[in-house]
Amino acid sequence: MSLTDSIGGVSPALIVGIGIVLFVVPEPVTSVLGALVLVLGLVWLFARRLG
Asked: What residue intervals traverse the membrane (predicted)?
């Protein structure tokens, strides 16, 4: 099982949702991590729609 097979089963919307949840947690580290995960999910979502 390769990494691309594992990633293929994850939806970009799920990544965005996880990012939002982490961003809402009122601790600085989780907020920064949540913002990064949120941006990663949004970029992935738009890349899938454009490509």
From this structure: 7-25, 31-47
Taking alpha carbons only, the member of 11, 16, 7 closest to residue 34 is 16
Whether the model pTM is above 0.85: no
Tens digit of each residue's pLDDT, the chain (51 residues): 565 555 666 788 888 899 999 889 888 899 999 999 999 989 988 888 887
Phi, psi of 49 (to 5 degrees): -75, -35
The full DSSP string for 7-18 is HHTS-HHHHHHH
Residue 44 CA, chain-centre distance (Å), reads: 8
